[in-house]
Write a structure and sequence with these properties.
Layout: H1 7-23, H2 26-33, H3 41-50, H4 69-82, H5 88-102, H6 105-117, E1 122-124, E2 130-137, E3 140-151, E4 158-164, E5 170-176, E6 182-187, E7 196-206, E8 211-212, H7 219-254, E9 256-257, E10 260-261, H8 266-294, H9 300-326, H10 337-349, H11 354-364
Helix pairs in contact: 1-4, 4-7, 5-6, 5-7, 7-8, 7-9, 7-10, 8-9, 9-10, 9-11
């Protein structure tokens, strides 16, 4: 398969690269990640409203542009290149798809226009790091338990929470952040550009209209939502890997040792070539998975798992190599290499690490059965 951006997609890429390159500088990232919110509200509204990136993959009737996951992947790659600290992944690539798939027309109209414009920040909970239980309470419901490690959960206006206990399956709930009984706990994460939070539900009252779709019917929807989120995260990881490669190549050209640039030494050339192969393969995996998502292909779980596993490994390997190739300066707080390294480590575990994704692939391919 040969993937080539269309003229429109190339224009989106050029626009996004120019925008993030100008406004998301290293100094700005360091300033913002130390703030209480962890993101720049002015830049956020520029990304969402002025540039229209927030609605790029959302339906037109809900305030979106009606494009696809390939276009969304392009945006996330460019954000990943600059380590842009923002709730974009959490709100647009994780929570919004759940509402698109599971929500009624009224629920979509209630939440999606605000999410697309950036006025509403949404966040998605996921089962692997939490346990939320839904119980019936007359015509309404009660929610208890917790959901952990939610990106930018401390600034979210609403949450999409998966819970079990009613209808025999999984339910997806649209929970406003100010709902009584909901407590939000912010954490200090390894990646300061992507703060995490945990949610604690103390017998939270859930009205019937806060359930997205029918209670107990969201297992398939939630699984697809996570696959789409993994593809989006993989694209961001591929962008980060490409940026750290570019940074390292430039350093190898500029750093002179023994009278010549260190990039002329054979050992460094080999290491940089290996990084380039990983970067290009990661981009291919992410774009292929995004194409599968746009085509509603049956092999979406497999493509998403491959993309997330490979891009996690590629980003981690490239950042590790970058620190080594930069030498002593690469280990210092003042250099950006460690910011990329920490983003790579944090992203590798988000939505399931590479090992769990390979286990998913093995199950899909039925490897090991009968042995």
């Amino acid at each position: 398969m040969q993937f080539v951006l269309t003229e429109e997609q190339a224009l989106i890429q050029e626009t996004a690269r120019g925008f993030f390159g100008e406004y998301v500088t290293s100094a700005k990232v360091r300033e913002v990640m130390q703030s209480e919110t962890g993101f720049d509200s002015q830049l956020w509204h520029g990304v969402m409203a002025d540039m229209g990136f927030g609605g790029i993959a959302l339906p037109a009737q809900c305030g979106g542009a009606g494009l696809g996951h390939v276009e969304l992947a392009i945006i996330l790659m460019e954000m990943g290149r600059t380590l842009c600290p923002s709730p974009f992944l959490s709100s647009i690539a994780m929570a919004a798809p759940a509402i698109v798939q599971a929500g009624s027309a009224d629920q979509q109209a209630q939440w999606l226009p605000g999410i697309a414009s950036g006025e509403t920040i949404a966040a998605l909970g996921w089962l692997e790091d939490g346990s939320a239980t839904l119980s019936e309470n007359g015509s309404d419901y009660r929610l208890s338990g917790s959901a952990r490690y939610i990106p930018f959960g401390h600034v979210a206006d609403m949450f999409v929470i998966p819970a079990r206990g009613v209808g025999g399956g999984l339910s997806l709930l649209a929970i406003p952040a100010k709902t009584p009984g909901l407590r939000i706990e912010k954490h200090v994460a390894i990646d300061l550009t992507r703060p995490m939070a945990s949610l604690h539900f103390d017998d939270v009252e859930v009205a019937a209209d806060m359930v997205l779709g029918a209670p107990g019917s969201a297992d398939a929807t939630y699984a697809r939502t996570l696959d789409l989120a993994r593809i989006a995260l993989a694209a961001e990881q591929a962008g980060g890997a490409e940026a750290i490669l570019d940074l390292t190549v430039q350093y190898a050209k500029d750093r002179v040792q023994f009278g010549r640039p260190i990039g002329s030494f054979q050992a460094l050339k080999h290491r940089l070539a290996d990084m380039m192969i990983q970067v290009e393969t990661a981009k291919t995996a992410a774009f292929y998975a995004a194409c599968v998502a746009d085509e509603n292909g049956a092999d979406l779980p497999e493509a998403a798992a491959i993309a997330k596993a490979y891009c996690s490994d590629a980003f981690s390997d490239c950042t590790g190599n970058a620190i080594q190739l930069h030498g002593g300066i690469g280990f210092t707080w003042e250099h950006d290499a460690h910011l990329y390294f920490k983003r790579a480590r944090g992203s590798a575990t988000l939505l399931g690490d590479a090992r769990s994704q390979r286990e998913t692939i093995a199950r899909i391919l039925k490897l090991g059965e009968g042995n």
